[in-house]
UniProtKB/TrEMBL annotation, chain A:
Spans traversing the lipid bilayer: 49-71
Organism taxonomic ancestry: Bacteria, Bacillati, Actinomycetota, Actinomycetes, Kitasatosporales
The protein, known as: Tat pathway signal sequence domain protein
Keyword terms: Membrane, Transmembrane, Transmembrane helix
Superkingdom: Bacteria
Keyword Transmembrane helix annotated: yes
Automatic annotation (TrEMBL), chain B:
NCBIfam families xref list: SigE-fam_strep, sigma70-ECF
Keyword field contains DNA-binding: yes
Name of the protein this chain belongs to: SigE family RNA polymerase sigma factor
Domain of life of the organism encoding this protein: Bacteria
Organism: Streptomyces actuosus
Amino acid sequence: MGAGREFDHGMTDRGIALLLADAAEGVEIGAAPTQAVIRGGRRRRARRWAVAAATALVVVGSSGALAVTALPGGGGQRVAPATQVPASRTPGVAEPVARHLLAVGVDQGRTWQVDIDVWPAPRDATEARALLAAMAAYGEYPADADEPSALVGRSAYFVRHGIGEAEADGTLTTEATTTGADRMTGTDIETVAVPLDPTTQGPQRLVIGHVATTARQVTCTWKDGTTTEVPRATGSDVDSDDQVIRTVEGSPYAWFVCLAPQGTAFESARVTQ
Amino acid sequence: MGDRKQAGDEEFRAFVVGRWPRLMRTAFLLAGEQHAAEDLVQSTLERVYVAWRKVAAADDPEAYVRRVMINAHARRHRRRLREFLAPRDDSGIVREVADTGDRISQAEDRGVLLKALAQLPPRQRQAVVLRYWEDLTETQAAEAMGCSVGAVKSNAAKGIAKLRAIPELSGTVMVGGRK
């Protein structure tokens, strides 16, 4: 570090902004490769139409029956649907999503619910294409896998929550793709805090998070200083309505939900056991 | 038809030239490395080109571009997670070769920050970069990240807390001004 500096050990937000601005200066800004970008864009456009023209895909349901579905945006150019499962595919790999209930409760007379949809990891681009089409039929689009090849080997999850009449449909709260290598360990935790009613900008009372599968207790702390402890589900309460840490088949994480009392909101959450 | 396409390409070209430096800086903070930043910006702009007519007509084309870049970053990060999170020396992250005291110090500081950013989970890194470098509001950052405002707050707060916990970083900021 340079001489004569005066240090701000608290590191303010402005300090962070200054550090980022300084680090950003470290990149070399060459001439914009406009021609290469346009060429690349044209290639992508051509590829997109090629994919759209071959949208008829076979999805194998749990019954083994064949269903034909399609990616959106076909633009009227369709080819004859494939009618045979490729020999390399194990029947059932593109089974409909496994939907798990993460939590359910009643708040001011209205029932709320949090669900997670977990899709299996496809083994190749063909399976991935079928899965993306099946997801699209559920209105689910993995943001980080807009091309089939990006989904290969990755399981996708979509967490939804809803309240009242919209409970069944739910609103997408968070989604991502994972592999088995994405496991969390120790006290790792990731949370999302949102208003219980997704149609409002109310206080962030609903906390949805994931932790290591070994975590035994999560403690959510609310803005008013009170806390809520979420224990690990045991055999007797796996199917109960209690808010517990749940293992979700197909997900490398364990999941939990906690709801702040009326009048307060999310402050923090950590693994406490 | 051909004229319209050509005009669209010209407009897009001007957009790319105008936005390239800023996009490169944001991408550098997200990707942590020069070549990865160039790849990220280029693939982002290729996607923007595909939807250029829609983007050009939008009230806020920047918001669309940011959303595309964040999605592309998330996708790349997941592919290269192990590579970026693995302990490494500065050679892959910081390209400057410092030859004087100040330049060495500056490069070291940048290296510490880039390394610290690289160790944040991608959503936290995105939230920090969008809020504190791009200077977006929480709502704008939420739009770019495709998540709730609460998720932005949570990710930014966690990311900042982790950066603050790094002693080398908390010692590099001067009170009230540039380093």
